[in-house]
């Protein structure tokens, strides 16, 4: 139990109490008089009641005390959760592509089957094999298409930039795969809004009138 005591050398009153197992002495500026003792004793009763209730705030009660920092509430720092690794329940592109090819190839001629398998082997599997179906988004496909027509992205097996018609066929294969994935798993089709590249028109140069007349002159009636 705490007490109100007096320092003989100064004649000033001070609190003498225990908090969290530590003996604490906090001095007041009040001289030792009966009225001041009663005032200090009432304050000490309040302090001990708060200590018993677990609500005593040392720094608030004695804001100028050097001891207050020893009893500052410890703030529990909750570590930031580690970023979660996204786990997809959908198959990877290579597994789904193999299944799709097995199911669809019975509808194709041998020459077409060979062409499709070549597109997957050379272009699609190197780019998307390890990705889950729902990891393939529009941004990845647009970047993939850019690499197909970018001369700085030449592959060892492709010496020249691919023609627009070839690029359209490659993206068309991805479109078929992702359309099937949409039907089976309900995922968005990232190919839905990707437009086909424009094809170059064949430069047709008809005969001039002079050439036509010259050919007519050489044709037997």
TrEMBL record:
Signal peptide: none
Gene Ontology MF annotations: DNA binding
One annotated GO biological process: DNA integration
SUPFAM superfamilies with a match to the protein in the record: DNA breaking-rejoining enzymes
Occurrences of domain Core-binding (CB) (ranges): 91-182
Name the UniProt record assigns to this protein: Phage integrase family protein
InterPro entries the record matches: CB, DNA_brk_join_enz, Integrase_recombinase_N, Integrase_SAM-like_N, Min27-like_integrase_DNA_bind
Gene3D superfamilies referenced in this protein's UniProt entry, alphabetically: 1.10.150.130
Keywords: DNA-binding
């Amino acid at each position: 139990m705490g007490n109100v005591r007096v320092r003989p050398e100064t004649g000033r009153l001070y609190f003498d109490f225990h908090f969290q197992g530590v003996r604490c002495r906090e001095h007041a500026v009040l001289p030792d008089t009966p009225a001041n003792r009663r005032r200090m004793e009432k304050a000490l009763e309040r302090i001990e009641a708060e200590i018993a209730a677990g609500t005593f705030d040392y720094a608030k009660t004695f804001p100028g005390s050097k001891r207050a920092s020893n009893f500052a509430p410890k703030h529990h720092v909750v570590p930031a959760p580690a970023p979660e690794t996204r786990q997809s329940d959908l198959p990877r592109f290579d597994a789904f592509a193999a299944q799709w090819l097995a199911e669809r190839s019975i509808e194709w001629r041998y020459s077409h089957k060979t062409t499709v398998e070549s597109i997957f082997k050379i272009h699609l599997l190197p780019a998307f094999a390890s990705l889950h179906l729902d990891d393939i988004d529009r941004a990845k496909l647009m970047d993939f298409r850019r690499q197909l027509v970018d001369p700085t992205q030449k592959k060892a097996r492709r010496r020249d930039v691919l023609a627009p018609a070839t690029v359209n066929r490659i993206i068309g294969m991805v479109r078929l795969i992702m359309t099937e994935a949409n039907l089976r798993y309900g995922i968005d089709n990232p190919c839905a809004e990707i437009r086909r590249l424009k094809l170059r028109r064949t430069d047709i140069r008809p005969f001039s009138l002079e050439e036509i007349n010259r050919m007519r002159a050489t044709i037997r009636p």
